[in-house]
Structure formats: structure tokens, C-alpha cells
Design a protein that fits this description.
Layout: H1 9-14, E1 22-25, E2 29-33, E3 43-47, H2 59-79, E4 84-88, E5 104-109, H3 126-139
The chain binds adenosine monophosphate (AMP) and zinc ion.
């Protein structure tokens, strides 16, 4: 049984206690759609085991998250026709971290898109997020 924190939002998503559009999962990781997407297809990869940030995550989990992030990036490139991908991890509040369970942002980029860092999070359209998540799930390999 992985370490969990009863007060942690992403632990609750991993445990299925709060809803999320899950795109993929494996023994060590879960990938799901961000509800405030910076671009179409913005997703997060988290370790199942709770770790606060980059400084705390176990090396095996970090490796598993990186590999799942690469698979998701390849899927977004092929399926959503993303022209580029940003992989972003924020470690610490001063580096923009707001949820303190390690996560890797997989942000598809499109030629000429207006995204600039740091982006200002805002709620996405849930139907469109779910539909894009289904597309990624279907083609994830
Ligand atoms: P960070 O600011 O790097 O810690 O990123 C946290 C991310 O989690 C933000 O992009 C949020 O939009 C996202 N987020 C927060 N709550 C949820 C949720 N319930 N489901 C999916 N994504 C979430
Ligand atoms: Zn957690």
C-alpha cells in the first residue's frame, strides 16, 4: 500500500474518492486531465504514493512519472496534433506549486498559441476536457 495523505487532493483522485478524467494509470502513476487547462489536452501525471514535491519523491516514482509523461506527450502529439509539449514541474510555493503532491504537467502546445508562463489558471469547459481526455485515453500507448 502506497503512502497517502488523507488531506491531499491528488491522493483522493488516485484513490477514486473524487472525480477526475483519468487518461492512463499503471502500478506507480495516474495521469488525469487538469480542470484548469492551460491549453487543450493539459494533463497531470502523479505518483500513486504521496510525496510533497521533487525533493521528496522516491527515485523509482520519479522515473515512472517521467516515462508516463513521455507516453502522454507522444499521445498528445499524435492524437491532438500538438506541435510541441511543455513538461513542467513546480517545486515549492515560490516556484508556483499550489498542490503539494508531486505532479508533472504535460502541456500540449500549438503553433502560435497564446500561452505564456506563468499562466493564469482558469476553469475549463468540462465537456471539452472530458472529450479530450477520452481521445487521449483511447490512443494512449
Ligand atoms: P501547480 O500549480 O503546479 O501545483 O498545479 C496544480 C494543478 O492542479 C493546477 O494546474 C490545477 O488546475 C490542477 N488541479 C487542481 N485541482 C484539480 C482537480 N480536482 N482535478 C484536476 N486538476 C486539478
Ligand atoms: Zn497526496
Amino acid at each position: 500500500m502506497s503512502a497517502t495523505d488523507p488531506d491531499c487532493l491528488f491522493c483522493k483522485i488516485v484513490a477514486g474518492e473524487i472525480p477526475a478524467t483519468i487518461v492512463a494509470s499503471d502500478e506507480r502513476t495516474v495521469s488525469f486531465m487538469d480542470i484548469n487547462p492551460a491549453t487543450r489536452g493539459h494533463a497531470l501525471v502523479v505518483p500513486r504514493a504521496h510525496a510533497r514535491d521533487l525533493l521528496e519523491i522516491a527515485p523509482e516514482d520519479l522515473a515512472a512519472v517521467a516515462l508516463a509523461g513521455q507516453r502522454l506527450a507522444r499521445t498528445a502529439h499524435a492524437t491532438l496534433e500538438a506541435d510541441g509539449i511543455n513538461l513542467i514541474n513546480s517545486c515549492g510555493a515560490d516556484a508556483w506549486q499550489t498542490v503539494f503532491h508531486f505532479h508533472l504537467h504535460v502541456i500540449p502546445r500549438y503553433e502560435g498559441d497564446p500561452l505564456r508562463l506563468p499562466w493564469t489558471p482558469g476553469p475549463g469547459d468540462m465537456d471539452s476536457i472530458r472529450a479530450t481526455g477520452e481521445q487521449l485515453k483511447e490512443h494512449y500507448s
